[in-house]
Amino acid sequence: MATQHATFCEQHADHPPFRYQEDRAAVVALSLCPAELEISLRKHGIEWSPTQLEPGQAGHDLAGQVAYFGIFDGHGGQHVSQYLYERLHAMIEEVSKSSIDDVVQFHKKLGGYFKRFRGGALQPWVQHPDYRDKMTLEERITLTFLQADQLVLSREDTRRCGSTASIALMQSLDNPVQPFYAAQKISLTTAHLGDTKILLCNKHTGKVEPLTEKHHAESRVETSRLRRLGGQLITDSFGESRWMGAIENTRSFGDGDFKPFGVTAEPEIKHRVVNGGDYAYMVLVTDGISTLISNQEIIDLARTSNSPQRAAKAIVNFAGDLGAEDNCTCMVVPLAGWGTVGGKDETEARREYRKSKVSALSSRSRRM
After folding, report:
1. Which terminal CB of the chain, N or C, has fewer other CB atoms within 10 Å?
2. In this model, does residue 4 exceed pLDDT 50?
3. How far apart are CA 303 and CA 344, in angstroms?
4. Residue 195 C-alpha from the chain's centroid
């Protein structure tokens, strides 16, 4: 897959205060077992089979090809995000159900939150190791994330740092098979830890459709999970909430010192089938951008760009104009609806106002 024309990752780390670039982004073509993909789709009520593809077509040989997009935001160092960038996609292909018991036992030994860990989405395999021949895609991703976390925590240089992560897997369901950026019917699976984001732009309305929810202690999905621990949510002097007074992201790779207190690498996995023609693009961003720019602003910044590269640059540059104080990484993935976005750019006036305020403040600072 020629990624240069399909996606773009723009990293903004060329001026202070960015002493280190801890963000990473990856685009890869995975080769997965078509029978596993069939099982996964059937679980969601979707009938698809590689045997139904037209015989002799090139797409028949690509029945197991899945486009992988990943964005990783490291903290405390770049070791974990670099490892995920280099290895996570390959682990999705390579991971084996035979490692499930070892992975679950490793996490149980972390104690605290994991003391009663039963494997989460992998629990049926823990109870009945041979209950099925093949894993679903969701089970494969869960095992991959937990095994990657085990490997990260086993390394001395990664125990005290960590990384959030969001990945999107796209499988074309067209017959004949089309690449993801031209496919009319796409199986889209997202797996997410922390506060990186994946967003979709509706071609007809121009409205954003978020595919992820940040994993902070005060968020809906995490509040119920952490409540049983009896820990405390504390607001720091900057008005930001911290779990146990120290933890912002309650799901991440690494961060070994906080694993007993509820930080987990169990991904939140969502699946949907999308009509590619109804969506203009998908955007993945790190929180260096999303803490400054709203979801709709991110989508609107890309709507008039004539290429994914320019769209990503527009988003990153606007974060820089607002004085971003963290690494900023953006990936824009074109879909079949690329080229025209309906509705109005409702955030343009607000963006210009915010930009003018920052410019005025900078001018006053230079005069002082």
Report:
1. C
2. no
3. 10
4. 9
The structure's pTM equals: 0.90
Cis check: omega of the bond before 16, within 30 degrees of 0: no
pLDDT of residue 351: 95
Residues 21-35: tens digit of each pLDDT: 899 999 999 999 999
Domains, the chain, in order of start with CATH, read 3-213+262-367 (3.60.40.10), 216-250 (no CATH)
The H or E element containing residue 94 is: helix 79-94
Alpha-carbon dihedral sign for residues 203, 207, 209, 214: positive
For residue 176, whether the previous peptide bond is cis, meaning omega lies within 30 degrees of 0, is yes
Q: To the nearest whole number, what is the mean pLDDT of the chain?
A: 86
| Tokens 């803490």 -> residue | 291
CA distance 232 to 16: 34
Is there a cis peptide before residue 334, judged by omega within 30 degrees of 0?
A: no
Across 157-180, b (16+ Cβ under 10 Å) vs e yields ebbebbbbbbbbbbbbbbeebbbb
Flag whether pLDDT at 56 surpasses 60. Answer: no
Is the model more confident about 297 or about 129? 297
User: Contact, 296 vs 277, CB < 8 A?
Assistant: no
Q: State the Cα–Cα distance between residues 81 and 29, nearest whole angstrom.
A: 19
Element (H, E) at 243: strand 241-243
User: How many residues belong to the chain?
Assistant: 368
Contact 283, 199 (CB under 8 A): yes
